[in-house]
Amino acid sequence: MTYADLPELVGVYLEDSYVLSIEAAPHRFSFTLDAVLRSEHPRYHPPVPGEQYCYARAELTFDDVTELVWLSRTAVGFTYATGEPDVGNIDSLTVETQDRYLLEGDWGRVRIRCPRPPRLVLDT
């Protein structure tokens, strides 16, 4: 199962979303994103001039994390077009089991176990 099957991520295209930061805290793992919204997302709007996609600042969060395993970790860093840090994309988010997720990107590869799916909160 892929992230496109998760209700919270319908209409989001992670592969071209920019990861601005990653935070691992006790029982919580999150990405700050400039998320690409597809036309089926309720907050979609046509891309602004000069951009390929509709972007929205968002936080993708895994709550109540019971296990976090970095399978690989890369110290990458790019500069986003606005001058903000960019650590790549989420190239894949796979639902391995009901409570286990595997995420990969330029920043590394991590397996997360938590009892509920991730949530995506868009900035207003």
Present the secondary structure layout.
Elements: E1 12-25, E2 28-37, E3 54-63, E4 67-73, E5 78-79, E6 85-86, E7 92-97, E8 100-105, E9 108-113, E10 119-122
Antiparallel strand pairs: 1-2, 2-3, 3-10, 4-9, 5-6, 7-8, 8-9
Report on this model:
This protein is mainly β and 124 residues long. It has one domain. 0% of the residues lie in helices and 54% in strands. It is built from no helices and ten strands. The protein has strands at residues 12-25, 28-37, 54-63, 67-73, 78-79, 85-86, 92-97, 100-105, 108-113, 119-122. The strands form three sheets. Strands 1-2-3-10 form a four-stranded antiparallel beta sheet, with no helix packed on it. It has a four-stranded antiparallel beta sheet with strand order 4-9-8-7, with no helix packed on it. The N and C termini lie far apart (30 Å). The model has no long low-confidence stretch (mean pLDDT 91).
Task: Provide a short characterization of the protein structure.
The protein has strands spanning 12-25, 28-37, 54-63, 67-73, 78-79, 85-86, 92-97, 100-105, 108-113, 119-122.
Largest sheet: 4 strands, antiparallel
Gyration radius (Cα, Å) is 14 Å
Counting DSSP E segments of at least 2 residues, the number of strands comes to 10
Strand content: over 45%
Number of DSSP helical runs? 0
Question: Which whole number gives the mean pLDDT?
Answer: 91
Order of helical and strand elements: EEEEEEEEEE
Characteristic key phrases:
about 120 residues, 4-stranded antiparallel beta sheet, 10 strands, mainly beta
